[in-house]
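pasting for the record
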Amino acid sequence: MNNFAGTRPHLVGSVYLDRGSLYICTVPLLGGKFHWSLIHITDTGVATRHHWAAAGIDPCGREVYVQQSLPRGPLTASATQILGYFKVSAYQNSGMKYDLEGFKAVCRSVFAQSYPTAEENRQHGISCRTWVTSVLQGLGLGKDWALEVERFVTARSQACEMQYLRCYLNGEPYQLVIEEV
């Protein structure tokens, strides 16, 4: 399923995502990598962002699970460009949906502790990407399926980043991608 909605990177607005759903959101980083987060939307439409991120202002320091309310809903653009929202279809279809508190409990349980620095976390295989994949497994998705989702989102994010760069260089609007995995 391909749905497209978006704005220029400097404009901020909301994008409409399905209620009772889970999405993976990616944002480009340097070196061809991406920041991964999960967007959880309750049946009543309350959206929250969940990710593995810096515990404070030092991006190289300790990392923790971070949960952020999205009172205006998921955004089409922010200070850093969102490449896409990838709907985890198995979350809705398999009967494994969680309320917000249950979802947060799974997120908190994935990486029980962090190393003192982001670099040490990476050396031990802990990143925002591996955190998302581990949360999917913690929600009841099989390891093979969770890894397949990771591969798909990585490949699509790479393609989206190339499209975003082309749009940026040509002064054209980037169309944020919303796809089902």
